[in-house]
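Sequence decides. Our protein:
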Amino acid sequence: MARVVGTPAVGRKRGYLALAAAAGVGLFGWTIASVGARELASQLHALAPIVAFILALAAARFWLQAAGWRLAMPPAQRPTWRELFGAVVAGEAAGYFAWGAVSREPMKALLVGHRLPERAALGAAVVERFYYSLAATALIVAGIALAAVRYHFVGWFLVGTVVTIAVALVAKRCGRRFSTYATHDRSTALALVGLALAQEATNLVEAYLVLAWVGAAPTIASVVVLEGVSRLLNSAGQFIPGKLGVTEAATTALAQSLSLGGPQGLSLALARRARSLVWGAGGIGLLAVRAASRPAAVLPPQERMAA
């Protein structure tokens, strides 16, 4: 009987996933208990009138991401807007429910592989995400800077800035492996930066709206600090599916420290989780439809995987 190769490794990965998920669930439960279920339920009920707007902001982010991805592709091989938007939604769902970028970008490339080589689609997706990482890095640095001024810890600001810039440089070096024509065209690069900044702007608008709606009285500065610093804290949950518990704990603690209110911060985190679950369900549905239809590939397999 043939021995199954790699079974111990698969078992270890499943064990790590189970431990990460258990840690996330525990942190999630502790955060809710510390805030109070009754207070939280009241605020979530108050959010009902703006749920549609939160979902619409997410749709805008997906469209901006699709636009950046399209710009990074060769003009003659660009898929339709509908195909790109669907691939982005499905890819984000795969990343949310599984292993983040490890599953997100390859899934997006796979879904448009009938239009252009999958490696080219993956390279364009990585380029778009690289420019988004630049915008996120700028937000993190701005958040740390404002927090340093507010809490008088300039030394920590310098340390945080150095670490953030180092991570960005490593990402840049890795992104060079997926160089496309977009990385050599200045006007395209500037457009990608603009689209990435617009995505971050929708995140800031979302946070401000939700916090204001639940009575937190946020300022632009406090929202920038909340969004920027939470990005760093959330990095600890990269390998927890959906960053369950990590996002809630980080947002709650930061909102409390910024005098926005812990319950209000948790309401923001849960509103975003609900938004992600709704769009994630749509993305999984798109994957199921695509798997059932199995459209014939326009390109031969050799060309699809060509460099």
